Amino acid sequence: MQNEVAVVEHPSHEVIGVPSMTFTREQVELVKRTVAVGATDDELALFLHTCKRTGLDPMAKQIHFVKRNSKSGPKVAFQTAIDGYRLVADRTGKYAGNDDPVFVEKDGKPVSATVTVYKLINGERIAFGATARWSEYFPGEDQGFMWRKMPYLMLGKCAEGLALRKAFPAELGGVYTDDEMQQADNDESRTTSIEPPKPKAAAKAESTKPDDDSLQEGCDGVVTFIPAAVSEKSGEKNGKPWTKYGVRSGDEWFGTFDSKFGELAKEAKSLNFSITVGYKIAGDYKNVVTMEKASL
User: Fold this and answer.
1) What are the boundaries of each domain within the chain?
2) Is the model more confident about 130 or about 248?
3) Is beta strand 175-177 parallel, antiparallel or unpaired with respect to 64-70?
4) Which of 42, 93, 184, 202 has the maximum number of C-beta atoms within 10 A of its C-beta?
5) Side-chain half-sphere exposure of 161, counting CA atoms within 13 A
6) Concatenated DSSP letters of the chain
7) pLDDT digits (tens, 9 = 90+) for 141-192
8) Closest to 272 in 3D by CA, of 46, 40, 64
């Protein structure tokens, strides 16, 4: 690195309940290569500071570095699962549990979820409530597979994240849950995630063929990526229903009529893991031939 990130051997202060965390120079380089891919030196330094402040281990994938492209330029977010939030709160020794979400419904679907989190302050159990609204967090039809499948669970987790951050701002400020940030992928494309970097042909769908030793039989190309979006279009032909799935990587789209591939792509988008796609080129289209969960 041109401007090396300082490795702090003895932190100047610690948050009570958060285990001390230091990084060797080798670990810093490992994080930059595999977790904070594409991070500038300043972004990496801020990410490592956040890891140390929260006690979340980036190499154990307890916290994620995510960079998205937006109209105003790249935006960086530090994200964790709701379990990471609960862990940070519990380590303070002041977390006193939470109530189950309370939902407002319309037409049998959740419109909002409210969660109350409790914190011990001067020996008293103080309530911190927060409400998440479907209209603000639903990531859209293309990316809302898990939201349609488990709407109450997903909205409830967003409300719990809001309440935990309100109760523990010093520990959780600047860190967001993955569920909260799914809606950010509507207008912004994720360019860096928790997945390790793949070969160059995997970062973005390419028209060129990969090396012969990586080319799957019957395919014109093979790419590995986390889907940026998954679309569905249904119709009927000769009395038979059909559904076509579109899977986007960067500016490239891959099409398939196979429901198994479509469901795998939607799951990968929702749960943020990579898939390996073998495709055939047909004119301006890339048709999926094979698809499987990528091995790390």
Assistant:
1) 83-168, 200-293
2) 130
3) unpaired
4) 202
5) 24
6) --SPPP--SS-S---TTPPP----HHHHHHHHHHTSTT--HHHHHHHHHHHHHHT--GGGTSSEEEEEEETTEEEEEEEE-HHHHHHHHHHTT-EEEEPPPEEEEETTEEEEEEEEEEEEETTEEEEEEEEEEHHHH---TTT-HHHHHSHHHHHHHHHHHHHHHHH-HHHHTTEEEHHHHGGGGTTSEEEE-SSPPPPHHHHS--SS---GGGPPTT-SEEEEE--SEEEEEEEEETTEEEEEEEEEETTEEEEE--HHHHHHHHHHHHHT--EEEEEEEETTEEEEEEEEEPP-
7) 777 788 888 999 999 999 999 999 999 998 888 888 877 787 665 544 444 4
8) 64
Assigned CATH topology for domain 200-293? OB fold (Dihydrolipoamide Acetyltransferase, E2P) (2.40.50)
Size of the chain, expressed as the number of residues it contains: 296
Q: Which residue has the higher pLDDT, 44 or 1?
A: 44
281 and 220 in contact (C-beta within 8 Å)? yes
Instruction: For 237-257, write each residue's pLDDT tens digit.
Output: 777 888 888 888 877 888 898
